[in-house]
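ugh finaly. both done.
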Amino acid sequence: QSDGNSSSLAGLGRSEAPAMAPALAAIAALLSAIAAPTHVAGLELEFPSDWFPVRIPRVTREDLALPGHEELQRGGAPFILTNALQSSEALTDLTADWVKRKFGSRHADLYEHGIRDTNDKPVITSASDALEFVENSGLAGNGSYAMVRLGATQTAAVRALMRPGYPALFDSDWWLQSCLHSTAARDNVFLAVAWSILIVGSDSAGFHLHWDSINTGTFQFQVAGTKHWVVCDPRGEESFYDPGDIDAFAPDLKAYPAFREALTKHCAHVAVAPGEALFYPSNWWHATKSDGATLGFVGRTVTRWNHKDVHQALRKRCDNPAPRTSKPPPKGAPPALSKEFCSALDTCAELWADRFSVLEERSLERQAASAGTTRRMLDGTVSHPDPECRTASQDRRDCSAGTHGECIASGCCWGPTRARCSTPGGSGSLDGASDLCPWCFAPA
């Protein structure tokens, strides 16, 4: 139980967080701008001045909506949302005590000594016991992590505390109701691939340098405590070695000399404070370290950049499940993807593709309007997410396909267009956009 100590997870966020958030955000912004050796007093971190040249932008919700930030809006680059949690209840009510009350009997992965490398395996226990362990380990000066796996139902309960104004990019489960018709199937995919989790860490708890599976983008709302991140562009991954090899905050450059290139060319160091959220795209490597007791809400998201890769990764899991062994899995272990989800996966992928085709069209419209130029639609421009489909309307021919899946399977291109809606025999509206219709076409 909480003893009122500032390092107690249960006490964090109730009275301290609202007052601390602006100050911590200002400190984090200052740290990002320092060019001399970076020093973080609480963690006693000090880095050479030529390390971490990559700059991750810090933006507000208002900034994110402005023209010029399309890459961030679409999830194509990492950024920190400084006013991510507009609901005061998220900072005051979403505490370890709340998690125990709501989800105490759910299974959690407890890493008793943090996740220093791939040899650190979790103990599966109840969320209540895991959080109690983390609290006590923090008081004893030992860094530990607890990850509470959430189903779709539990995720909705957490998100309810974060409204109003939940960021659109972080609305990661908009597709669930349309392609999965049972609560059991929706919960299954969340638990099987850790679609959303609550992460609770004690002071100095760390997670080794790694990348996330199934190619989704990832966001983390920081609710309590400050978390330090090293985030690395995957274009430099040849210098990252294997997941778990590197302590990104204190790398052994004698043992791993190539990592110096990562530190001086491909990586960033940021501090994320309560009320802020970090987003990074698929395949970006990252490592973390807690400064004080921390609590965060983590979720995966599908974007226009990664939806095809996510589909492929999930299809691979469906088609090649882990082989059965004579020894049953431990109680509480994540389930395999269900037959219901695997049967519906292609339908889900069609929803993703349709949505991002429409959003691309709307983005082009906004860009043209903000530039004061004549509006250009996908059927009248060479712009298309797939290079092989970048042809103007007069250079296209119709393909006979009724759905996105049939269109792609026939080797054709799929994109929304206004003109098709007014064409005799044209398709109906898509995704609530009454003036946008899908078109299956091929270069003439």
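ok and the 2nd:
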Amino acid sequence: KYSATKSSSHYTCPTKANMSTKAKLHIANSKAEVAPLLHAQVISCVQKCSDESKFVIALSGGSLPAFLSANALIQSFADAGVNPQWNKWYVFLADERCVKNDHPDSNYCSIQQHMLTAELPIPADQVFPIDDALLDDTTPGTCTTENIAKDYEDKLKSVLGDNGKFDCILCGFGPDGHTCSLFPDHDLLKVTDKMVASITDSPKPPPERVTLTFPVLNAAKTVIFCGAGGSKALILDAVFAEASLIDDGSYDVVMADPAPYPCGMVQMECGDLCWVVDKDAVTGVEVLEKS
């Protein structure tokens, strides 16, 4: 099984047996105010890694890249007085559709359009799309999607090592509760021996994709879920079991166990779990109304 290590020695965490997963919840007054809240969490992750030689981050597609526009992100770092050290960033995809990298369905294409513009000086060789040339492999008996997943796992290992940990993973979540390309009731939810897995029957088109697996998500230093809109409310109502309002206006939440949807199944080994949403996304969420 995949397991994370710290440096060269095994990174041992306190046991989580019979312990509920806890998270921090930040709520923006509107969708327009989600981006600054999200940026603040990313900035916090960067600060935690200020003495490291790398800052390794994974990004989902969907609506998430729109919250990470280059100019706004640069301004957020400036306003916080934090040096982003872009030259240390290594950017991976949390999941990707198996299409060409310039295809409108490509998560990389969306991230490139919003975030990875000329204004953001992350070295090009530290940004990792899938190898879309593998889509052209017509060798009989080969599975293109599996090959892409294996190649992408090799890329991860070249930066993180065999058992490395992401510094930050940014995830969206759908109205069906999926995250990355981990869909409800799918066999991929049970994968424990791969960092990157392939899927050929995604219930959401396109059907062929690659995705980070739960062991990688669970081992990360920080996982941040981000979403906006009323279509998220039923999911959040189901995945939050308890909530306590704290002084800064955020909430300490306890995740439902067992988790009803994949986005609620992340169980951090030692890292931090965070949710950033707007008010519409939590309208009618029972545990928040009670807190």
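summary for the 2nd one i guess: The chain is about 25% helix and 20% strand.
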